[in-house]
Amino acid sequence: MSLLIKNGRVVTATEDFVGDVLCEGETITAVGQGLTAPDGAEVIDATGKFVFPGFIDPHVHIYLPFMGTYAKDTYDSASRAALVGGTTSLIEMVCPGRDEDPVEAYRFWKSKAEGLSACDFAFHMGVTRFDETTPAALKQIAEDGTASFKVFLAYKGALGVDDDELFQTLKLAKELGVIVTAHCENESLVAQLQAQFLAEGKTGPEWHEPSRPVQVETEGVRHLMTFAELTGAHVYCVHTSCKGAVHAATEARLRGVNVWVETVIPYLVLDDTAAQRSSENGWPDFEGAKYVMSPPIRAVRHQPFLWDALRSRTISTVATDHAPFDFVGQKEMGRGDFTKIPNGIPSVEHRIRLLYTHGVAAGRIDLNTFVDAASTQAAKLFGLYPRKGTIAPGADADLVIYDPAIKEALSVETHLMDTDYDGFEGWQVDGRCDLVTVRGAKMVEAGKFVGQLGHGKFLKRQPTHF
């Protein structure tokens, strides 16, 4: 089937013009002005609306055993939520335990998406130990099309790797041409501070951020930079939350380290007072647990810096670190001990609308930077460009028609994420994803999911980071 979108404001990372986009089958075949519709094509008038490339979230957790429980979403709920929010491709973190076989874990994570996801999907392979069997396993996974790894410099005794394992992982990644994404904190400092606060009776969610202060994250980035410099590996700092951590990465970049920086939407729009919500401050008891994630949401003074770094493209991508847990029965596991609160904020559905509202509409970033950070850079860094991340002949027909005139409120009553709360309850957003396509198939119309579960495909990627 053919689809012609006419008279929309077509925006990519580098272009911005009023024109037409023709899709035939799964592919964009023409972009320009005054295009003629083939016989039988559906024609959509996008006058007054934006036409964006499908957005890519390069950091999500969908299936996730974590802290004694499991994330709530499946690819049923998460892929539908992503699409309604304009995200047409997800890259999920595979996070096996240290005692799990990497290949078996990878296959299991992949099986959770295949045949169910409505949007396209890919993975970062978590490396949670490195022994004599690891190189062969990781090579097999890379050959299957998963050309990025993930390491944790946190969660001591669970997901975290030690320095020997970090060195070996980066060394192998360099040989394979695989980029390594990294959660950067100092796990020993976190453990010490957590123990100190609990011993002092400081048990509420408001103590999560002080137990993982900006110095801990900054030191974690510096630590990674040293190893990346010595091995020559290409690295990507996930969910970067503060000025010191960004500076540590940019200083290393000036020394020749191949490093890219991601932030996530909660850091751009929330501040540390969210996790301080308690009955003492007029909120329902334990409300702050809804906003516990790691690294933590920081003081508001970090936000202008993060926006400036995004505008200058010092920060390459805006992801979510979507990690959905219910408040009742899951977040509540940490009552009396903040270290037991499952970390994460459900946000895969809201990323684009929040970034547009608080970034573009607020004048903090322009439209090209918006597209670059939410789509194009992820495609380029993770081996998907130019198939994904742009509007051009030959690219997949992943498109978002965005109506900036619509204003709506976010709410647990209307979101598709499978959680019992919404971290942005009542927030007003500018614009809505009116129509979303994945490889030419309509998945969203008038802001509602209309697609088919199982339409999504695994995105096989080649190594590009030699």
UniProtKB/TrEMBL annotation:
Residue ranges occupied by any Amidohydrolase-related domain in the UniProt entry: 50-440
Cofactor(s) needed: Zn(2+)
Residues forming coiled coils: none
GO cellular component: cytosol
Tagged with keyword Metal-binding: yes
PTM-bearing positions, type N6-carboxylysine: 150
GO terms, molecular function: hydrolase activity, acting on carbon-nitrogen (but not peptide) bonds, in cyclic amides; metal ion binding
E.C. designation(s): 3.5.2.-
Domain of life of the source: Bacteria
Keyword annotations from UniProtKB, A to Z: Hydrolase, Metal-binding
InterPro entries registered for this protein in UniProt: Amidohydro-rel, Hydantoinase/dihydroPyrase, Metal-dep_hydrolase_composite, Metal_Hydrolase, Metallo-dep_Hydrolases_sf
Enzyme class: hydrolase
Record PTM text: Carbamylation allows a single lysine to coordinate two divalent metal cations.
Family matches, as NCBIfam families: D-hydantoinase
Protein family per UniProt: Belongs to the metallo-dependent hydrolases superfamily. Hydantoinase/dihydropyrimidinase family.
PANTHER family recorded: COLLAPSIN RESPONSE MEDIATOR PROTEIN, HYDRANTOINASE/DIHYDROPYRIMIDINASE FAMILY MEMBER
Protein name stated in the entry: D-hydantoinase
Organism expressing this protein natively: Botrimarina colliarenosi
